Amino acid sequence: NKGKYEHYMQKEIHEQPESLTTTMRGRLIRGGSCKAKSVLLGGLKDHLKTIRRSRRIVFIGCGTSYNAALAARPILEELSGIPVTMEIASDLLDRQGPIYREDTAVFVSQSGETADTLQALEYALENGALCVGITNTVGSAIARNTHCGVHINAGCEIGVASTKAYTSQIVVMAMLALAIGDDTISSQARRGAIIDGLFDLPSKVKEVLKLDQEMKDLAKLLIAEQSLLVFGRGYNYATALEGALKVKEVALMHSEGILAGEMKHGPLALVDETLPIVVIATRDACFSKQQSVIQQLHARKGRLIVMCTKGDAASVCVGGSSRIIEVPRVEDCLQPVINIVPLQLLAYHLTVLRGYNVDQPRNLAKSVTTQ
Ligand code: UD1
Ligand code: M6R
């Protein structure tokens, strides 16, 4: 049931304040005078010791689920102190890459039925790793076959383009990082700030959804473009990849997410006064580096659309020619949850304006159960 919405993708984008609330329900502990703020993931509590002892955490997934894991990787590395590596399921299988008994392999999948991810799970089980699932579908193959896991509880997602599952997956993996790091005194204040940030997140998502009309206006400007680049780094490298995936998948426009640190190693050659480029430059430890990227793109007359933190327009606007998307600020590791929303809205409006099928893009299926 689409309710007041025209498409499931639109409904699922606007539902995110509620889906995130459901994802966190019963899992965050506010703390009090004698109790620290903490996280309770029922499905993992008996396995946390084993995870903490593992030599490596390997994230495995496809498409949007892979991107969600990439968004959570920095906070997991920070709070766990364990090396975290990333695997696209098909590529792990193509290489028969090394997976060891001492590894924790985390399988991320909305449907829980993706063939590549499922086969990578069988492979990791054979190799003796502890296998953890992060899925949206209770009773799915991945949920059943992993040793333990966390349901993201985002509610049924119908649009082929994954939106609310993405933001809920990031939140679950941030909670996973908090749970693994729970025994470390030195990071207690940081963890407390993230937990406060999680409590605030649904209201901040509600705020960023107010950019709907602005994104529709931007889509009108971009309607006839051939291509759109999205530059990000750090926590928001994943946002660049995921924003570009949404644009290509539903709006059928070529789009590429680019790691801003790689700019001079190739992508800079593409920049001219015609190609539109989104630069994600919200406040975090990478902000000054992104300011310098903006200056360099501007010097080559790049057609820039800059996403920045509310109130920062003047600090990111060189020469006054860029278009600005201002978003609310949250704790740095949660910022990808906010930053993807305008890009989801942009992809949605571009699709409608270009006259393509929003909920079932050509050639794609919601869950890819064949290889
Ligand atoms: C569980 C209940 C929830 C109830 C809550 C109350 C289920 C599905 N969930 O939620 O209804 O409100 O207790 O305390 O009954 N698992 C995997 N692989 C996965 C995902 C999950 O093995 O990919 C396992 C978990 O390890 C766990 C079980 O499935 O044993 C349920 O996981 P989850 O729903 O996340 O647990 P709770 O949040 O505790
Ligand atoms: O169900 P899964 O999360 O395993 O699906 C993985 C990908 O097929 C999926 O995320 C795909 O990339 C989406 N259509 C992207 O919107």
Q: What's the gist of this structure?
A:
The chain has 371 residues and is an alpha/beta fold.
Structure explained in plain terms:
The protein is α/β, with parallel strands linked by helices and 371 residues long. It is 44% helix and 17% strand. The protein contains 14 helices and twelve strands. The chain has helices spanning 8-14, 16-24, 48-53, 63-80, 89-95, 115-126, 141-145, 164-180, 188-208, 212-222, 237-251, 287-299, 313-316, 335-354, and strands at 28-29, 38-39, 56-61, 84-88, 103-109, 130-135, 148-151, 227-232, 254-259, 276-281, 303-309, 323-327. The strands form three sheets. Strands 4-3-5-6-7 form a five-stranded parallel β-sheet, sandwiched between helices. The radius of gyration is 20 Å and the shape is globular. Residues 42-43, 133, 135, 138, 142-143, 146, 148-151 line the site of uridine-diphosphate-N-acetylglucosamine (UD1). The site of 5-amino-5-deoxy-1-O-phosphono-D-mannitol has 16 residues, from helix 4 and helix 11. Its EC number is 2.6.1.16. It is an enzyme of class 2 (transferase).
List the helices and strands and how they pair.
Blueprint: H1 8-14, H2 16-24, E1 28-29, E2 38-39, H3 48-53, E3 56-61, H4 63-80, E4 84-88, H5 89-95, E5 103-109, H6 115-126, E6 130-135, H7 141-145, E7 148-151, H8 164-180, H9 188-208, H10 212-222, E8 227-232, H11 237-251, E9 254-259, E10 276-281, H12 287-299, E11 303-309, H13 313-316, E12 323-327, H14 335-354
Parallel strand pairs: 3-4, 3-5, 5-6, 6-7, 8-9, 8-10, 10-11, 11-12
Antiparallel strand pairs: 1-2
The structure holds uridine-diphosphate-N-acetylglucosamine and 5-amino-5-deoxy-1-O-phosphono-D-mannitol (M6R).
